[in-house]
Amino acid sequence: MQRQAPGGLDETHDPAHRSWVALAQAPETDFPLQNLPFGVFRHDFEERPRVGIAIGDYVLDCLAVARGGFFDYLGPVVSDVLQSWSLNALLALGRTEARAVRAAASRLLRADTPEGARAQEMRDAILVRADRVSMLVPAEIGDYTDFYASVFHATNVGAMFRPDNPLLPNYKYVPVGYHGRASSIVASGTNVRRPSGQSRPDPDAPPVFVPSKSLDYELEVGALICGENALGETVPLAQAQERLFGLVLLNDWSARDIQSWEYQPLGPFLSKSFATTVSPWVVTLDALEPFRAGACTRPAGDPAPLPYLSDAADQARGTFDITLEVWLESAAMRDAGLGAIRLSRGQFSSMYWTFGQLVTHHASNGCNLRPGDLLGSGTVSGAEAGSRGCLLELARRGAEPVSLPSGETRAFLADGDDVIFRGWCERKGAARIGFGECRGVVRAASP
Ligand code: CA
To answer: For strand 283-284 and strand 319-320, is the pairing parallel, antiparallel, or unpaired?
Structure first.
């Protein structure tokens, strides 16, 4: 069995390898042979979800592949979990097993291996076109925690609400987060209903309960946890990477008017918990290996992270070069056939904290992180104006509305707006890989 040493490149990353699935070689595909993200899909003819792996514009059906005996050499436990109806069983096994499955899938989909030749003969049984299936939330998410790891986002937002004191003194020491809501996490493509809630538009009048007037998106990256630390046990930073199964795009939909009235003193609540959208394909940390990057360089004068959040390997290679974009298409743009426009483009590597640090900090009090837990990075905003990851920042809290090609403007989202996130990794000497889309259309509030 082909086992990959943790943290290394192996034959699954070789950009020269080609798949017998022709469209996996399309230059613009997010899902070449070198990616092989995991997801959960459902055929239109059966209720039971299945585990899948994306390849080009097809899905490799892991249930069918396992029944074909292709995963037998990984052992009965691995073969069984690939036939289950969620990713959680694989997440419980951990990174080592997931790495072996990805390597097996790579050999099976390659044009130049005996496994590939055999798989190609069974093509109709093990491959399904991506447009013929529904993609689901990729795991049963037990707990969801959202962080605030971009110092640029924290500073921009802080400056709007506290001009004299934009960044609170704890920010550079403690990765700030709050416990989010798992039940309202939805897969890309799900419509999002505008929430109603309490807000106080007139500070001299009592609050009102009305549909949110300042609905926003937040461009984030989500991390799916694998393995488990027992309650009371911590996760040293040197081991945190093995607890990260893979990454998705995440939209932390936010109702700013509800948020600004409710957030003190305990943080966001109903302003966030009405919906969180994730992209359905989990890009594994193994696939991301060629795109590792050093943690952000802290400006001179910033404190060093406390020792439990400080590790030379994490500083050198703890994050990833991922380009992230936000696109928007209003209903009027759709009707006029104008297509979506790009609102922003940012870099994930600009974040102040790495996902390793977020895992270690989360478990530092002995909190058990379980397979299928989801961590949100916090809004990914960079130093440049064009890299701001939410409308609150882009439109300066409504002061500078964004112009759309339809002649409309946006301070916040309107009903009918389709918000689309895209993300990908590109580097010389590596095959480009991507995340697919994370999108959702805003629907009118309940009457
Ligand atoms: Ca957020």
So the answer is: unpaired
